[in-house]
Inverse folding.
């Protein structure tokens, strides 16, 4: 089964893992996060990412999800990439992580393509039902 590592700015990765625990009732197996703290030693973070990778990858390959392309966590994640073995995708969010968890028995490259394709359509504007009253406690300034 494909292992999944989230490498992101602190505390996003841990928060995403906590969301999966909330949704599934437990932490899914072969899932880990590395929260990169401000002014962290990049070499130390790369070592930590490698250690986490060795824990979650059973030989089936791994997916590394990172938040902001080009930022320090992304550069750390890119250092883990290996053709046909470890794929790195930037732009992680909860729907992407959940889709990855639900489909990680398919081939790694197929999973990566699926996630990128679905991410392109995942951001939508949500409209209130016609005639619905504003939620209580929402001020006019917040609307």
């Amino acid at each position: 089964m494909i292992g999944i590592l989230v490498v992101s700015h602190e505390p996003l990765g841990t928060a995403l893992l906590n969301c999966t625990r909330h949704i599934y009732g437990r932490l899914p197996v072969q899932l880990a996060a590395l929260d990169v703290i401000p002014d962290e030693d990049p070499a130390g973070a790369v070592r930590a990412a490698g250690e986490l990778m060795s824990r979650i990858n059973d030989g089936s390959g791994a997916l590394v999800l990172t938040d902001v392309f080009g930022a320090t966590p992304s550069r750390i994640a890119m250092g883990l990439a290996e053709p046909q073995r470890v794929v790195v995708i930037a732009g992680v969010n909860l729907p992407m992580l959940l889709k990855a968890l639900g489909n990680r028995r398919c081939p790694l490259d197929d999973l990566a393509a699926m996630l990128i394709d679905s991410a392109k359509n995942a951001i939508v504007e949500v409209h209130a039902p016609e005639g619905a009253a504003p939620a209580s406690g929402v001020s006019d300034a917040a609307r």
Observations:
- The chain has one domain: 3-108.
- The longest strand covers residues 3-9.
- The domain at 3-108 is CATH 3.40.50.510 (Rossmann fold).
- The two ends are 44 Å apart (CA to CA).
